[in-house]
Here is the input.
Amino acid sequence: MVEHMYDWPENYPYYVSPLPDGLADMPPGPELAAALAEVDHATLNGYDLVVVLQARQRQIAHDQAGFYDALSELTYTVPGDSDGAALRYSHENVFASDELRPALTLTRRSAEYETGFAVALRRRLPQVWRFLERGWIDIHKARVLTDGVAGVNETDARVLVASVIEDAPQLTTGQLRARLKRATTIHDPELTKQRYEEGLAGRRVVVEEDLSGTASLRGLQLDPADVLRIRKRIERLSRRLNTKDEPRTLEQIRADVFMDLLLGRNHAEGVVGDTAIDIRIDLETLAGLNEHPGEIPGWGPVIADIARHITETNPKAQWRTTITDPVTGDVIHTGITRRRPTPPLRRHIEATHPTCVFPGCRTPARACDIDHRKPWFHHGPTNEWNNEPLCRHDHIAKSTWWRLRRKHNGDYHWTSPCGHTYTTPGHPP
Here is the structure.
């Protein structure tokens, strides 16, 4: 355990919160704006600072909803001077974004994107705008939702958004994107496949100059299975080179291995190792009986064709099977084929918890530490109930100021260093 970093004075003054009553639950609007204007951040403890940050985020989202509401109106406004009537077209003015460019000093591309987003938010997906206006989601989640149903007809887009938006306030953007992608794939697998093929057809390599005088090299819109194999190969090679005498950081080694592989330098050849990837797919989809999306932990949903292709091109890979209750989805049994098996307990934990259980973390369980919630040296048992996957960063964080307990329903209850509580649902896979 890490010792506390601070020595509290003997006569530490008792803290009385100066925040207005009800600030934590105050809806965004003029009243919240006025209350926040009176807050002096320097007088607040950590708990209250988090409350203020949450309140300011609600207010910012509310104001941004107002901005995009006004921008949406602008796109339908009939031209006129300062005395002109407030008339509207029945259709969108395709040149409205040009008004925005000098008014807000935006590039043409930025003005067009912002205008399109405003129309999508206010006209096409009003439920997303409503959640933003009430401060329940932020602008980043609003963009995930609008972008995630691009190309879907308006009626279906609203249905898909409605299927995920109620949970959006509790999800990170990554979790929300994955959930919406899965819903879209199930709803219209052909459209999802078409979008994937169109994206793959646009694959390219981009070179950019950085502010530091260095350069960045990016491959865009590539096959996700190949990208994951490349990442795993770079990771394996880098960790083999990361010896105690190595002066470079692991990130520097990864970058050098990346360059070496592209330039054909052979110092790392012969250390290819296993480049198989983790793919989760139900048996009916694997057999071609339905088109349910597969899942790559840490990446997200992939269309059925990709999932089947990955399994077909890895015939010698290790297979782990998980049998779940058809009603509750609870894990009943786990098994393994080929190669030396990992301990049964770890298999069960990874099957039950596919990712790190810290709120919002999506690190795959296979890349996590298996943590004893009650430490082993404090007689904590090594069993499914006392062990869960935590990525290395969150494992270290838990050992300092964070507190974790598991509820009877399987949910994980986290308490932050500033005293706030968060819950990670113990949903089955």
Q: What stands out?
A: The longest strand covers residues 331-337. DSSP finds 15 helices and eleven strands in the chain. Residues 90 and 402 are 55 Å apart (CA to CA).
